[in-house]
Every structure is written in C-alpha cells, then in structure tokens.
Write a structure and sequence with these properties.
alpha/beta; Carbamate kinase; Alpha-Beta Plaits; 8-stranded mixed sheet; 6-stranded antiparallel sheet; 26% strand
Length: 413
C-alpha cells in the first residue's frame, strides 16, 4: 500500500466531464489499495476570469480582497471532485487550504508557506477517504486567506506530500512530462525519463512551464519524489528526483525559453560602494525577482547597471526605483521589453569544458546577437531579441543533439 498525492491542474479539471475523468483515475488508484490525497487547481480559465472581474471594478484591486476572490475558484473544484468521487462509491472529503492546515505569511497574492499541519487530511485518509485539497491557497496566523502565486497548486501538492510523508507526488498536466524543449517549438523534442531536482529547478525558473519553480525547490528540500505525467494518456511521465552519477553523463538535458523578459538599465549611477546595494534592496522590498545583472565599466565616476525582470514586473520595478535613484543621484532608468531569454541546462556542464563556446557559436552562425549572459554551474542563459526566440531554441536543441533521433548528451564539442 502506497501513500500518494495526486495533483491535477486547471486543464485536467476544466469541465464536468474532465472532473469525472479525474474521479475515475483517483478511484482506480484507491481501489488498488493506495491511500490517496488529491490537490486540484481551479477550472481552466477561472482564475483569470476572477482577476478580470476585479479589474473591472478597480484599476488597482486591493491584494487582500483579490486573494479572497480568486481562492473561490479552487473551492468549486474540490467540492465537484468530491461529489464525483462519492458518486462512484469512493468515500471522499474536500478541504480548503486553511482546513488542510496550510499556514502562510502575509504577502497577499504571492504568499509563502510557513507550516503545514495536515492532521485533518491524515484523519480522512485513516478513515479510508480520499482527501481532496484546494491548491494555491492558505491562511495567515491572523486567519486571512492568501494565495501562493501562479502555479501555486504544484507547491501545495509537494508541501502536502512532505507533510504526510507520501511515497510520491504525481503532478498531472496536459503534457506527458518534461521534454528537452517545448514540443510546440521543436517537433522532435524528446521526453525525459528522469531529471534532477537541480535541473528541474533551473528549467522551471528559466521558462519551462511544466512545474512551478518554488514547488521544485520544496521537493528538493524535503526529498519528495515528483512524477510529472499527463491526465489524458497512460505514459509513465518524468521522474524528478535526486541527482545520481548517470545524470552527469548527459551534457545538456534541455533548452528552455522565456519570452516574458524586460531589461532594466539604471543610467549614470554613482560608482561608489553601497549604490548597487540600495538599488537592489528597493527592488527586493517590492518582491521583484531579478536575473542577469551586468554593471558596465565606470566612466567619469558613474556606471550603468543593467538587469532583467519579468515583463509583468517592469512597471513596478521602475516605480520601486524612482525614490532610490533620486537619493543616490542616478541619471534615470530605461526599460526594453521585446526580449527573450534562451537557456541550456544540464548537470554535465560541471565537468565538461566548451559548452558556452558551442552555444555562442550556434547563435552566432544564425546572426543572433547576445545582449546579456548569465550562468550557474548547470545553466547558461542568453538574453536575445524576442523575434529570434523560437529559432534560437531550435538551433540550440540541434546543436546539442537533444532530438528524438539523436543521442542525447553528445560530448563532442
């Protein structure tokens, strides 16, 4: 008997018929003797519909009230799934995020989990019921409803799996698993059987939309085995787990693309200790994530500092910077939005030279200019013009022999 958490996204529960299909999958898993907890998102499009409603009544909706509003989407889905399960003769009980014991901080619309007291969920499982838990939401110590940000249901599922010591956390999506690139861009992209937590975290943070980055980080911290699979096929999917020696034999595991990038340049910042700290402190206090930081060579005591943020954070970044730039005496700030970030990821990069040179040459051969570069031990990212985004994805996928007809991880540089 296994203890399993199964998470179903909005597409998987996007209609009454699909909810009934999920109920059949869950009931079949329990019929095999497993104890099953299920985490579900709102029905596809519902969260966007609710957010749009809030914008129709206010230009800048209050964050607390917005969380109160959008949290209702998952409440509908958990009740419908529990009803469908009971109709199949499968005992089930639904729980909102706060009923399931998810306590968060007070950062509305992007709250972070502080603790999970899953006592009620465990009691339902012990009673032979399927516990159906609302993803994406929690409650503060002051009993204020919060949401966990986009993709937060993945985080709910992984955190629940850790809290109840589940044997595995199955994340069901509308794709078969994790691919070497987006199959919609690269037709011969190959399904990966296994990836490490570290690789998956890089892929998720760099634009791969299969898993939320915070959920992968949580899984790695608590050693939760995660399986990404489709709710519409019987394919085994992709296991996300601890790195082993075989993973380093593969030079590059995948190519990721983010078209949602903005480049922010602080112009004429005084070149003295503490200025960069003030600039990035203001951005951090606004809750904005920064990537690909470059500082130009100092000229006449001033320098330009360039970095990237998500396109949706561009305006908030400039607003957050306005007072600090005036305080330090910088000349101004400019933003460029028609940009994309192309990245290659693989644990094999740690022990192989020449990966960057091969990537840069492949882009240069297609006359694709690199605007900025960022690296870690297992990734290289390049900022490019968005019009070249899909072409860059295809040529890098081919350059590193990642296609279904190639031998992945070719080391010949």
């Amino acid at each position: 008997m296994a203890l399993i958490v199964k998470k179903f996204g909005g597409t998987s529960v996007g209609s009454p018929e699909r909810i009934k299909n999920v109920a059949r999958l869950v009931a079949a898993a329990q019929a095999k003797g497993n104890r099953v907890a299920v985490v579900v998102s709102a029905m596809s499009g519902e969260t966007d519909r609710l957010l749009k409603l809030s914008l129709e009544v206010a230009a800048k909706p209050d964050a607390r009230e917005q969380d109160m509003l959008v949290a209702t989407g998952e409440q509908v889905t958990i009740a419908l799934l529990a009803i469908a399960l009971r109709d199949l003769g499968c005992p089930a009980r639904s729980f909102t995020g706060w009923q399931a014991g998810f306590t968060t901080d007070t950062d509305f619309t992007r709250a972070r989990i502080r603790s999970v007291d899953a006592e009620r969920v465990i009691a339902a499982l012990d009673a032979g019921e399927v516990a159906v838990v609302a993803g994406f939401q929690g409650v503060t110590p002051e009993d204020e409803i919060t949401t966990l940000g986009r993709g937060g249901s993945d985080l709910t599922a992984v955190a629940l799996a850790a809290a109840i010591a589940a044997d595995c956390c199955d994340i069901y999506t509308d794709v078969d698993g994790v691919y070497t690139a987006d199959p919609n861009i690269v037709p011969d992209a190959r399904l990966l059987a296994r990836v490490s937590y570290e690789e998956m975290l890089e892929m998720a943070s760099l634009g791969a939309k299969v898993l939320q980055a915070r959920s992968v980080e949580y899984a790695a911290n608590y050693n939760v085995p995660v399986r990404v699979c489709s709710s519409f096929t019987d394919n085994p999917g992709t296991m996300v787990t601890k790195e082993d020696s075989s993973m380093e034999q593969v030079l590059v595991s995948g190519v990721t693309l983010s078209k949602n990038e903005s480049k922010i340049t602080v112009q004429g910042a005084p070149d003295r200790p503490g200025v960069a700290a003030q600039i990035f402190q203001a951005i951090a206090e606004a809750g904005i994530l920064v990537d690909l930081i470059v500082q130009n060579v100092s000229r006449e005591g001033t320098t330009d500092i360039t970095f990237t943020v998500l396109k949706g954070d561009s305006e908030r970044t400039r607003e957050a910077l306005a007072p600090v730039l005036a305080a330090v005496g910088a000349k101004g700030v400019v933003a460029a939005d028609n940009l994309a970030k192309i990245s290659i990821v693989g644990t094999g990069m740690r022990s192989h030279a020449g990966v960057a040179a091969k990537m840069f040459k492949a882009l240069a051969d297609e006359k694709i200019n690199i605007l900025s570069i960022g690296t870690s031990e297992i990734k290289i990212s390049c900022l490019i013009e968005s019009k070249y985004a899909e072409l860059a994805t295809r040529i890098l996928h081919e350059a590193f022999a990642l296609g279904s007809g190639s031998v992945a991880g070719d080391r010949d540089l």
